[in-house]
TrEMBL record:
Source organism: Actinomadura spongiicola
Record Gene3D superfamilies: Winged helix-like DNA-binding domain superfamily/Winged helix DNA-binding domain (1.10.10.10)
InterPro entries according to UniProt: RNA_pol_sigma70_r4, RNA_pol_sigma_r3/r4-like, WH-like_DNA-bd_sf
RNA polymerase sigma-70 region domain mapped to chain residues: 7-55
Listed name of the protein: RNA polymerase sigma-70 region 4 domain-containing protein
Length: 65
């Protein structure tokens, strides 16, 4: 769990924000867009790139994805 927290801290603030709203808060993309005041397509894009960056950060720490 510590490795995951470390990897998440390496993400940009906007990536952490969208992952918090979608994954941790279990909101849909539409709900996250409303909460964050951003277009749905922006949320989709940020989630995609945030998960990609998180995967890289975890691989750098020896966690297989």
């Amino acid at each position: 769990m510590v490795v995951i927290a470390e990897a998440i801290r390496t993400l940009s603030a906007s990536h952490r924000e969208v992952l918090n709203e979608t994954v941790l808060s279990k909101r849909t993309v539409n709900e996250a867009a409303e909460v964050l005041g951003l277009p749905v397509e922006t949320i989709k894009s940020r989630v995609y790139y945030a998960l990609r960056a998180l995967r890289v950060a975890l691989e750098e720490r020896g966690v297989a994805t």
